[in-house]
Amino acid sequence: AQLLRLTIGKLSDIGITVLAVTSDVTAHSVQMAKALGILIDGDNMKCTFQHPSSSSQQIAYFFDSCHLLRLIRNAFQNFQSIQFINGTAHWQHLVELVALEEQELSNMERIPGKLANLKNHVLKVNCAAQLFSESVASALECLLSLGLPRFQNCIGTIHFVRLVNNLFDIFNSRNCYGKGLKGPLWPETYSKINHVLIEAKTIFVTLSDTSNNQIIKGKRKLGFLGFLLNAES
After folding, report:
1. 93, 126, 129, 210: which could join 157 in a potential S-S bond, CB 3.0 to 4.6 Å?
2. 8 Å CB contact between 164 and 223
3. Residue among 156, 159, 146, 94 nearest 120 (CA)
């Protein structure tokens, strides 16, 4: 934290203004964020810290969205089922989707091939992005409409996958020409983006495991709290 403050101060000395800081989501990064004055708590979130060279300026703090996505994937796999106000998301639906894709979905929109070992393999970051994707949500919707018994209670899974995908799109925006939620935060896109962020906050604070333990109070909370911190920033 002290090295970061020193770096920001040196940049200010040569005319470069730092508006925001993005870090990965390791234990050391979380400790650094807290040392800077960032609060990562569902009930008390503080997303900015004091600029070392300007008493009137605050610097926003972000966690890298790819790392947050991986943490949520790991939490989902660990819990197997995640309950929230709109239903329940089941990891098994994703496992069944991969198995079915291998057998019968050759004529439908293909699910990313790297999900083939989903059941027994710890996915890499890029595979986590494929897991929480619009194509997966759409495939589950299609299977639900076809009436396949294994997917008849997958509405909650669809909602959860789509919400996490939308959050990732917002915070993984790369340029001013992006479309939809991948586009920049402009006055004309603010309402749509803000709607997703409000929905995420409303849902994430209600997440629980099958024993009704609140997830954002447990050991696997950081992926969800990280996205809420980014939303505040």
Report:
1. 93
2. no
3. 94
Both structure tokens of 191 = 């309402």
158: left (phi over 0), alpha (psi -120 to 50) or beta: alpha
Parallel, antiparallel or unpaired: strands 58-63 and 20-23: parallel
Alpha-carbon Rg for the chain in angstroms: 19
Nearest by Cα to 71 from 79, 60, 83, 61: 79
- Which of 64, 5, 76 lies closest to 29, judged by CA? 64
User: What is the mean pLDDT of the segment spanning 11-17?
Assistant: 95
DSSP string over 113-166: GGGGGTTTS---HHHHHHHSSHHHHHHHHHHHHHT-GGGTT-HHHHHHHHHHHH
pLDDT in tens, 86-120: 799 999 998 888 777 666 554 455 555 545 445 45
∠ CA 114-209-197, nearest 5°, is 70
Find all residues with CB under 8 Å of 23, minimum gap 6, and list them.
29, 32, 33, 61, 62, 63, 64
- Per-residue pLDDT of 68-93, as tens digits, reads 999 999 999 999 999 999 799 999 99
Q: What's the gap between Cα 49 and its chain centre?
A: 22
Which of 100, 76, 102, 110 is CA-nearest to residue 90? Answer: 76
Mapped onto helix, strand or coil, the DSSP state of residue 38 is coil
3-state secondary structure of 24: coil
